Hints:
about 30% helix; 20 helices; 11-stranded mixed beta sheet; about 15% strand
Amino acid sequence: MPRNERHPGWQPGQQQPSRHLMAKRALRLEGHCTTRAMVAPFLALALLLFSLASGTAQGQGQEEFRVNNLPGLAAEPAFAQYAGHLPVNEQFGDQLFFWFFESQQSPASDPLVVWLSGGPGCSSISAMFDENGPFQLRGEGGDIRLQGNPFSWNARANIIYLDQPVGTGLSYSASNTFAKNQYELNRHFYEFLRQFYKVFPEYANSPLYITGESYAGHMIPGFAQYILEQNGKAGAVPINLQGLAIGNGWIDPEGQRRALPDIFYAAGLIEASRRDEAKRIFEAAVAGGGVPPVADFYPAKIEGYTFPEIPPQQPYPGLVLPAALASDPQAMRLAATLNPYTGKYLNAVLSLKDFITVIDCIGEGPAALRQLLPMELAVVFLDHSYHHLVFQFFLERLISYTEHNGNYVNLMDVLNYGPTIFVGLPTEWPEGDAIFTEYMNRQDVRQALNAESYPYPRTAACNPMVSYVFNYMNSDFQKSFLFLYPEVLRSVPVLFYNGHNDLICSAVATAEFLLEMVDDRLVPYFPGKEAYRQAPYQAWVVPEEVTGYDGVTRMREKRYGYSKQAGNLHFLNVLDASHMVPLSKPEAAQTLLNNFIHHGKVVVDTP
């Protein structure tokens, strides 16, 4: 949709809503009919047999989900843990995997927290090990051990780690179909909660907080609004939703990308001329219609759409230009860029700088050039216009400016520098991904986690860029979901927390779009809307005891970051933290969660 195309509900003479909220009134997350493509009779029979074999939550008790004899764990923990699959769409055999840890302090009275990793396609179980769960993986090979994490989020909360969407981690679809948009994810999440409460009814009335990071900034407000709408319906199972916590959320792609040139420049990563060049490129992409429309939040036209099978990667055969393109300058530039990779696996060795060159060649050259791309590149380009490709991969273009000896700045941590895959994702960060994959693919681990029904031999911390999950959700990934938050903020508090060293979801961009949201007079009222701009931006400090060389113990302030809060709207800038705040600042992350769910605010007054 062109950038200047108006929302269908807008009439001449009316003020047009802001770019983030133009679809607010027209878009709902429920109330629309939806259908899946017809399923062949043999598939329907297979799914019936699958349902009979696997059972449903109604027929399963808690003990069937209990985790015992977890490999690598020296002693059973003092808290209970449960894991396994719950059905969220029996017709298509959609199963979500969860790992649930009861609170180490007071399971009966502590809140229930759900953690969701982003991507989309990154396992929440990986975050459990790397970031904020009770166990951390250590060792390698047959000597993988689990050690305790003193900053686990289940210290004062009951916490569920959920692999979402279907196809992520150990979650799967028996029919090999996947969700295409947020509407379907909402229904899956809501059904998961319904099934969870049937198995664990003692938590049905517990205060519920939904937390997560990165792409969870898209998913969580949709889940929250869907829950709030269902709560208002007759006969619905009431869900005691009390708040959301969004860590480094991918929420407003246009605003977050627009801030990047200044952020890169301020961090000393690029010079002024590169900053100005990047701004011109981005504004041209926006003006050319590169920003996807917001107003597309209805059920997928074909629910359960099966993505075309991607064949196993083959060594790149090289590019031979047909006669019609032999003298085209962009075709020759493309061949010169790709042919040095002949005989190699492009996904593993294509440099970020060359990937950006390929985008420019395809965008500026004849349409026939797209047909010459190998599958691992063609799937990235899909049907996108050049302006959309520039918009979508603008961050990667900026990262390519930081190249030095084949390494680039880490888009998730400005203090980290190293190798990346061609879409700008770091290949050696965080360090625990390899051991996670090794551990989770062990049969004894699958058995202990009650995950033996998972039909594939391997899983990974994050699905690669050309995976099913990401490409299914790619349309939603590029859209702004900021318009969902005001409605949610009317009912429950939302904490936006950002690691100061994150580039892709920067604290600066989050602070800016929150101010834009509260200043937009077309945004509906929510507690804090009028007061947030004038609320103080205050230091977030925690007192600690320090013993000096003289043996005297004194109190001093440990500064975690800065906070701004009014009503239901909370913003937190965590100093020296990366895209994964609990990974780089685990003590601060545990404190922010405990303060938020137990005191209603992060900065708690101390005597």
